[in-house]
Amino acid sequence: MRKTAFITGATSGIGREIAREFAKHNIRLILCGRRQERLDELQQELSTHTEVHTLNFDVRDKEKVAAAVNSLPENFQTIDILINNAGNAHGLDPIQTGSLDDWDAMLDINVKGLLYVSKAIIPQMVARNSGHILNIGSTAGKEVYPNGNVYCASKHAVDALNQGMRIDLNTHGIRVGAINPGLVATEFSDVRFKGDEDRAEKVYQGYQPLTPQDVAETAYFIISRPPHVNIADLTMMCTAQASSTIVKKS
Ligand code: NDP
Ligand code: 8X3
Fold it and tell me: Which Gene3D superfamilies match (predicted)?
């Protein structure tokens, strides 16, 4: 039977490529983000492969999150796969000079936003005793790097929530797992450095980073395993990367 996936952060980077990869496999899509024009473009692009519905909301707004999920038309109401992907880093500063606004953004989006979306969708999975949740964590959720402090804390929280969800939803037959990517060339660094394109580009120069497609193919592999197989926690890095701070540059 055709499955339906709910993907947050589908307007860019990893989320957008997961949408494209899932569309190839005829998975019905609920695409979420704040940039409506990008949602519209992607809907148009993917509608030749599959059915697509878009939802525009900020994951920080718990009422809007719930209202968006409740607004789904009947044929999109049963969600089989939740991809908790929306998130970003804001700033890269030592703890003593970090910005409170940046800290709020990262904790509100990466942690609380992921919880609000999960809270709106998990009850239907529990009621059906089935579902698959894939959390997009990070190598930053496994190790802390200089000036990464609060972003790393937010991704360590995702790692803990991934484990916690898996434990609590185990008796309901719901699969929960995470992909923890290293450096992936997306708009991530544009956001982190607040539009400083030169600084953002330098992050991915001198080596071949992961592409969002690499992560998307891995996401499809995970969600297409047979029902008795759950990939609980998968860390992936480009070959040039050995840890958050060790990257072999040419
Ligand atoms: P992008 O900046 O390319 O995409 C981020 C996505 O998140 C966008 O679709 C954006 O949509 C959405 N988003 C951000 N803030 C909000 C918000 N407040 N409400 C709703 N949606 C929001 O980055 P990536 O694709 O790289 O990042 C995706 C995930 O992957 C993040 O969780 C990130 O932490 C993680 N990750 C990224 C890595 C990398 O190196 N790039 C490595 C490891 C993990 P919109 O702005 O339209 O709302
Ligand atoms: C994104 C990867 O190393 O920039 O989570 O934190 S990193």
Answer: NAD(P)-binding Rossmann-like Domain
